[in-house]
Amino acid sequence: MEIRTTTDQDHDVFVNTLHIPFGRFPDTPNAEGGGVWWAALEMDRNLMAVADGRPVGTAGSYSFELTLPGEVVIPAAGVTCVGVLPSHRRQGVLSAMMRYQLADLRARGEAIAVLLASESVIYGRFGYGPATYTQRLTVPRHRAAFAPSRAEAAASGSIELLPRAECWKILEEVYDRYRRAQPGALSRPHRWWEVGAGQPPISSFPRRVAIHRDADGVPDGYASYSLTEPDTLTVDEIITADDATYSALARFALGHDLVTKVVLKHIPLEHPLRWQFADFSAPQVSDHTEWLWVRLLDVPRALTTRGWLTDGELVLDVDDPFLGEHNRYLLTIRDNKAECVRTDREPDLSLDVRDLGAIYLSGTTPSTLVRAGHIRAHHAEAAKHADTLFRADRAPHCLHWF
């Protein structure tokens, strides 16, 4: 079997092959080659496994940026299009592609890889850990009233309703401002918007878009939505960095006539929206799930790049069984900056690289994984101390699909 990087000439074969493991057929792109989720593929970042002259597996990655705690932005590889033909499963094809890809991403100088897992049991063995979480709220219209609040009284601005085709450049600008302030958020490269790749509102599928403008008329938020059933309004996403604007857009969706329920997708777990309903139990929580999985490719660089709130030291004994690596690091944090060097000191925590990925964005506490039996704490205060150091001022959240 050969694993090789693809070229533009491989595009159609790659696309056809990656659909087979999922039992699907490629959609038809529009005249400009867009309008399909795979329209923004970067062929020089994709891999194909070939056996007996025939492609039997695919894997790819996008060149994204990931926002870390401390509003630090770092390049990240968005792993995608991973699949093996049903005829070649359980023959080591996936492991070989994942090992080849990790080596390639390191050679490109990338310190972090991320992905969305179609099956959560697959990627832990390759060093990925679940790092952000999301949920959806379903709200009956007759129970959607908000309680009076100071935030409502202080809110200002206006909402304008536009077709997606007329406002995607505004959406691009608003999303880019939002993602730079939100830990766990990924960039949406301009080409994605240009060719309509991904899911709504990036894709060109028909959507209504509510644009929120601040008191000066500047767009500072949006909600993308559609009527998915005769009586249901589904909001793809609400994007804004301001809580009052988020509430205004949610109210707009919840106040829509001729529907009996509103579905709000991709709500952060700790978002204050639920507390704003007059009836706290009105929103029905579902699809509480992991979203972004993180894999550290360069542990010292990843740890020294993110922001930190508390000074201290921590010795991490990190095992990476998939790549056959084992290293011990001294993490030292002073004045919100970190140094990370190899050390022979006794460890505070012993952990798998997948667990380091899970706690990296502060979406899961080290003590949770100690209690789960994933991380070993070598003394009584180690987990509590690690919780303090890895704490962030804002929970990570990602809603970009790729």
TrEMBL record:
A GO term for molecular function: aminoglycoside N-acetyltransferase activity
UniProt-annotated catalytic positions: Y123, F402
Ranges for domain N-acetyltransferase: 1-152
Biological process (GO), any one: aminoglycoside antibiotic catabolic process
Family annotation (InterPro entries): Acetyltransf_17 (IPR041380), Acetyltransferase_Eis (IPR051554), Acyl_CoA_acyltransferase (IPR016181), Eis_dom (IPR025559), GNAT_dom (IPR000182), NAcTrfase_Eis (IPR022902), SCP2_sterol-bd_dom_sf (IPR036527)
PROSITE patterns: GNAT
Keywords: Acyltransferase, Transferase
Residues annotated to bind acetyl-CoA: V82, G83, V84, R90, Q91, G92, V93, L94, S95, S118, E119
PANTHER family hit by this protein: N-ACETYLTRANSFERASE EIS
Subunit structure, interactors included: Homohexamer; trimer of dimers.
Family to which the UniProt record says this protein belongs: Belongs to the acetyltransferase Eis family.
Protein name: Predicted acetyltransferase
